[in-house]
Specification:
The chain is an all-beta fold and 290 residues long. Strands 1-7-6-3 form a four-stranded mixed sheet, with no helix packed on it. A four-stranded mixed sheet has the order 11-17-16-13, with no helix packed on it. It has a three-stranded antiparallel sheet with strand order 2-5-4. The chain is elongated and about 140 Å long. The protein starts with 20 loop residues before the first strand and ends in a 7-residue tail after the last strand.
């Protein structure tokens, strides 16, 4: 009697990951499509020799879409979108391994592994002059307005010049790195009338301004650790005649006449002369011909 026995391979084993918890440090400037975790570190085995189907999810709000797997049967994790340390500096991914496709009605066994991702801040941004205004919603670009100031013609100022909207000042927007910044004038000062303090950004005079023309200086803020990380700000210095006299009104008292019931913005007339609007004038002896 010959008995032939056929043993059927039942699906009674779960997939198994080599590790159920991994940690990866990812530099902020990692290129899109770069591999974050290799396939061999994430491939699950199955004693039933089933084909494994993978799915990657994130459990940290606001970090969706940055990391993905190569395919449903390839668990290699790659970077799908540019990182920004200011948006988030860590996330947690969960990789599922199933021995049946998602949605299958067959008995399915599942395994999971957790991948902890820590973003390492990198020196990616040039200095920002302050104050500045963000021009995009993720606040990655901040544009400053020109600085303005004034000096008196043929008069030497011994103190740092007062500027609007404030003193020359720049920061490293890679806040945790906070690289040292130095300042220099790179344009608009051919006569070397001005100097900028490399460390503080204070603008001072080297000599008299003898021309009534304005100066449009270009001031550069550069990171000491990398001269390719720099920004340029415009500084307009107006040269004016010194004011020796205060303005004053031509009369100490002005008398006028108005009528009841007049509409807003109607003229007020001179008292005693209803044909002439009341004029209030001031003069300045520094400008006798004005």
């Amino acid at each position: 009697l010959e008995i032939l026995v056929t043993i059927l391979n039942m699906n009674d084993n779960s997939p198994v990951f080599k590790q159920t918890n991994l940690t990866k440090v990812v530099p902020e400037d990692t290129k899109v499509n770069a591999t974050i975790v290799a396939r061999e570190d994430l491939s699950a085995s199955d004693a039933d020799l089933d084909i494994i189907f993978y799915e990657l999810t994130t459990i940290v709000a606001g970090t969706d879409g940055y990391f993905a797997i190569k395919g449903v049967n390839n668990p290699e994790i790659y970077l799908q979108k540019t990182l920004d340390y200011e948006k988030f500096n860590s996330t947690t991914l969960v990789l599922y391994a199933r021995d049946r496709p998602v949605g299958s009605t067959d008995t399915t066994y599942t395994a999971t592994t957790t991948i902890n991702i820590f973003i390492e801040e990198v020196d990616t941004k040039p200095p920002w002059f302050l104050p500045c205004t963000f021009i995009n919603t993720d606040k990655s670009i901040c544009i400053s307005s020109p600085y303005t100031g004034r000096v008196n013609i043929s008069e030497m100022s011994m103190e740092p010049l007062i500027l609007e909207p404030g003193p020359i000042y720049a920061i490293d927007p890679d806040y945790t790195l906070n690289e040292k910044i130095v300042y220099s004038i790179v344009g608009g000062d051919t006569d070397k009338v001005f100097s900028v303090d490399a460390d503080t950004g204070n603008l001072t005079m080297n000599k008299l301004a003898t021309s009534p023309d304005s100066y449009l200086l270009q001031v550069m803020a550069t990171q000491v650790n990398n001269i390719q990380k720099y920004s340029i700000a415009s500084v307009e210095i107006k040269v004016i005649n010194k004011s020796n006299h205060a303005p004053y009104f031509e009369s100490r008292i002005y008398n006028g006449t108005v009528f009841v019931g007049l509409a807003p913005r109607s003229f007020v007339f001179q008292a005693g002369d209803l044909s002439r609007p009341l004029m209030i004038t001031a003069v300045d002896d520094d400008f006798p011909n004005v």
